[in-house]
Amino acid sequence: xxxxxxxxxxxxxxxxxxxxxxxxxxxxxxxxxxxxxxxxxxxxxxxxxxxxxxxxxxxxxxxxxxxxxxxxxxxxxxxxxxxxxxxxxxxxxxxxxxxxxxxxxxxxxxxxxxxxxxxxxxxxxxxxxxxxxxxxxxxxxxxxxx
Length: 146
Known about the structure:
- This protein is an all-alpha fold.
- It contains six helices and no strands.
């Protein structure tokens, strides 16, 4: 009886040890559910696609920001950081192709261009991706601190 109890305890310890070891080496994965927002609503697109990382206020303090390796960009300071002029072309480029420059971070930021285009594959309007990016860009411009 003592031998069975010892083997059961040993087996339980192994299971607990493996479970604990598996937790400590597991890579954190952040999943952001994306729901389709209307192409003509820049604010709703921002809330759906950008706010999880950049925060509803755009200051880089979204609910998943702490899980990222690098703090998300403060989007309300874009104009201030570019000599008082909103960097519209840069924003469109980042949304379309992503960013690899050190000031924006790594490729952790999703490249929204292909994702936005894939949302509207059933639509008969080929320029919905452009409309989405344009309206999101315009909304970001409206967030700028004076």
